[in-house]
Design brief:
Helix content of chain A: 25-40%
Strand content of chain A: 15-25%
Distance between the termini of chain A: 50 Å
Number of helices of chain A: 14
Radius of gyration of chain A: 27 Å
Oligomer: homodimer
Mean pLDDT of chain A: 92
Number of strands of chain A: 17
Largest sheet of chain A: 6 strands, mixed
């Protein structure tokens, strides 16, 4: 039977919303890779009674309890006291930790206030996790068949200490590994994806298949448990094959997190440069492209034409097209893409024009009507879209469609018609 | 006695570390502004037994239970079923919600799979929260002295639905009125703001003063409880006066959520048009400006010049400047702003050029070195910045500085030197 883990984050700042519980996210990823099942995350404030209650609760439903936070020098850092008491341990001074804390302040050229030495008080007989990233050491001990692990709260200390100290401690306890593969899908909603793969999602137990809605996209995660990596990978093969059989080229990547992450390397491999012309996306398309480090290797720039004068002046869109068809039209989308390539001297160009909303535009075009265009250097392709949701979603999905056009062309796929 | 709230986030993707529980962070901020005490966050997977256990747990220690997630169309969306069962309610079809979902797909010109209608099954007699940001409606009901609120999981639906529907519902439960005013601060870090206002933050009880770190900014929230709005407002006056005395013109707005929301109306009032030239922000500046509905009234466009050819060609930056000073220089920042105004025929222009990273650029300029420029139509101002943090933060803070330059000039404030 696999071990079950509960994460308890300690800190009133979490309950006030000052920070998000990113420790829980990072540790959960690490724990599932160790083959450990996390069933609950709990967040509790700097309150001894409520922390004690949360710990007793966790001890009743998990066999590994990992706390984050509350190991620091101040009086509201009470995690060690509460957990030591809950599991009948004494806190005793740990000489080596005290030395490390003194040395830390010495290196920093800072005066150490005595309360910092509270951090060197640790549960008797625990495994000490030295803190090479801050001052408060972590620790682990077993009591009454439960394993207790305490880690510092700052993410810059919590994650490295987990990897360096807690992971080896826990690896000894876990049977087997869990591996996941995530397939990214663009062009079909979560409900429709689920409809097509319902049987697999319901029936499969190892590996499991689960869908996650990402803004405007779907992520499918295949998770397998086995004694070894190769065993887990072997279990995934037929499931991934089945998913690919059903969704085909709507799957744009494995283990990637965005279309832009896929499109930029494809351009680079082919020695192509990219430029954009944006109306309704208003810079979001370029922003997403330049979110990717090293985008400058292929990305030349984008001309955001939020008025017709700029479409005409900076992009060289023929005023007649604007007057005849309006800015939200396939003709103008194509002209914008061609104009971007011309104005910025790039081989490939993407363009977006449409109605982000709220509401229809002054021409009576409905919110969500968007045209995206791709100029390949030889031909232009245009996609007509009716995107649902608010202004933010329309802009996001419009940018994704532009990137998807490039993705399909760069991988030799036929352009798709989304205008059913 | 103040109500106590427990947040329960439902989703295996949270326990796998696929995403962080940002809903809990956002809702905790909103709830504390309503004067409600949040004592626990719980995260549980898409598992009916464990969700049921978490709900019963919460019912024993909180009088308001707010769930996020698990309202969608797929079969692992089980929040409504479990909570209805836990509190002895039937799920019944809600005609209006079904119509809204049908209409949502109709507007999209998309085929609606039947499982989408599961989203219109709601607990009998509940208050329905229509979803204007997606498909799954939320709801609230009272049972056995407990209030249950269910919200969708996607942050883009959860937060707006909370503000539009759940907050008014909850406000009705608390005795008296709780009002809060949020002051937005740009140009000083959270630690420094806390340092300057620590006494007020620690000592004040009604109203309370609390800081919230927002990416690159600080939000200060004054929250007062009284019998009436006027009473609550009166309590806030001296606290706001004190905060303004300390932070002065670093406070850029009250009840606003971004610099762009402040800058666009200021431009409109003066009948000014705006354009941008972006290098290191890569479209983020224009994206933020066009996030604001109606931006087209003042915003003409942005030229994202991610290479020198585009700086020269589309913005008319003198090649000599680029060769002599390099793209990351005050001279080029100014030339980009002037060039944007010229190329797009706008009166006011903002420009950014710098090193977003990762790492230094090929000229040896360090990551985080950024110049932002403002062209007012008569004169150019340039800000030199050393922005800490990773690529994402450098880009975000650089865009904020550009907007802050416009904000200060438009409100007649002297430009600030951030180059200490």
């Amino acid at each position: 039977m696999a071990h079950t883990v509960e994460l308890i984050a300690v800190g009133t700042e979490l309950l006030l919303g000052n920070i998000a519980n990113t420790d829980a996210q990072m540790l959960s990823q690490e724990l599932s890779a160790l083959g450990l099942n996390v069933y609950y995350h709990t967040v509790v404030g700097d309150n001894p009674q409520r922390l004690r209650a949360a710990v007793e609760q966790a001890a009743g439903r998990a066999d590994i309890i990992i706390t984050t936070g509350g190991l620091g020098p101040t009086c509201d850092d009470l995690t060690k006291n509460v957990l030591a008491a809950a599991f009948g341990r004494q806190l005793v001074p740990h000489r080596e930790s005290a030395e490390r804390i003194r040395a830390y302040f010495h290196r920093a050229g800072r005066v150490m206030t005595d309360n910092n030495l509270r951090q060197a008080l640790l549960p008797q007989g625990c495994v000490v996790f030295p803190n090479d990233w801050g001052t408060a050491p972590g620790c682990a001990f077993e009591a009454g068949g439960r394993h207790v692990v305490m880690l510092p709260g700052p993410p810059s200390e919590c994650l490295p200490m987990f990897r360096a100290c807690a992971a080896p401690y826990l690896r000894g306890l876990s049977e087997g590994v869990i591996l996941s593969r995530t397939l990214r899908v663009f062009g079909m909603g979560e409900a429709a994806v689920e409809e097509k793969l319902r049987r697999e999602m319901n029936d499969l137990t190892n590996p499991t298949l689960a869908p996650y809605a990402k803004e405007g996209e779907v992520e499918l995660r295949i998770t397998a448990k086995a004694d070894s990596d190769t065993g887990a990978l072997a279990l995934m093969v037929p499931v991934e094959a089945r998913v690919r059989q059903v969704l085909g080229d709507l799957i744009y990547g494995v283990g990637v997190s965005s279309l832009e992450e896929v499109v930029l390397p494809l351009l680079e491999e082919r020695g192509l440069t990219l430029g954009c012309a944006e109306s309704c996306t208003g810079g979001l398309l370029a922003k997403r492209i330049t979110d990717v480090p090293g985008a400058s290797k292929v990305f030349r720039g984008s001309i955001i034409s939020y008025c017709n004068d700029v479409k005409e002046g900076a992009l060289g869109v023929d005023r007649k097209l604007l007057d005849t068809y309006g800015a939200v039209s396939p003709q103008v989308a194509e002209a914008m893409a061609r104009g971007a390539a011309r104005a910025m001297g790039c081989r490939v160009a993407l363009a977006t024009t449409g109605v982000a909303g709220p509401g229809a535009d002054d021409q009576g075009n409905p919110q969500g009507l968007v045209y995206t265009a791709l100029w390949t250097g030889e031909k232009a392709l245009v996609r007509k879209l009716r995107i649902t949701g608010g202004r933010g979603r329309v802009r996001l999905v419009a940018a994704s469609h532009a990137l998807d056009m490039a993705r399909r062309w760069l991988t030799g796929l036929p352009e798709r018609d989304f205008n059913q």
